[in-house]
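Running low. Got one?
___
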Amino acid sequence: MIQRFEVGPRMSELAVHNGVAYLAGQIPEDTSQDIVGQTRQVLEAIDALLAQAGTDKSRILRAEIFLADLTEFAGMNQAWDGWVAAGHTPPRATVQAALAKPDWKVEIVVTAAV
């Protein structure tokens, strides 16, 4: 069985299958913020989706981080380091990417155990 959450006409924000939660790429709502603020918004959205699936950030299996500009890597890490669960840091990849909207500085995709 596959459970889908926040289903839209183009995509769902979250799917759960066989005890694994797959999140869509999460992006910031308020693009006027700097990289730290945008990253915090994205991490809050991830927390909310994981809660819908009955899990949390301590159970993240993998994170993929897309930055519009790698010179903002340190700022993203500042927000990440304040959020990630100590002792439960997941495998992670960070790459520079042309994001769908020019005001987005970061997009994060996670997969977590339920």
